Amino acid sequence: MMSSLTFYREQAEMQEVAANATSLPQVRDRCLRAASAWTELADRAQKTEEARKVKAEGTAADEASAREYEHATSRADLPTAIRSDLPPERSLILM
After folding, report:
1. Exposure string for 60-87, b = 16+ CB within 10 A, e = fewer
2. Among candidates 3, 95, 11, which has minimal Cα distance to 45?
3. d(CA 83, CA 58)
4. H helical segments located in the chain
């Protein structure tokens, strides 16, 4: 399946070729307007695609940060006798 961006770019190129091939001024103007419209659609599609990538990267980074935070806070909540990240002399619980 062809992406929208590729399709829009191809349509703009086809309209520019048609504009250059015709000798009729009204047809040339129509083709150039169409090429401009297709180019604008392609630019919008590209911006949308880039924004989606940035959002996806941000979401992945946010999820990773949340997992790191949860891991860090869950280990801090454990009693010292259970925590394996402390040296043995500090992991004793005195009651």
Report:
1. eeeeeeeeeeeeeeeeeeeeeeeeeeee
2. 3
3. 32
4. 4-21, 25-76
pLDDT in tens, 69-82: 676 666 555 555 55
Residue 81 confidence (pLDDT): 52
Chain-centroid distance, C-alpha 86: 41
pLDDT band (50, 70, 90) for residue 40: very high
Degrees, nearest 5: CA angle 28-18-23: 50
Chain position carrying tokens 């659609």: 41
> For helices 4-21 and 25-76, what crossing angle results, to 10°?
160
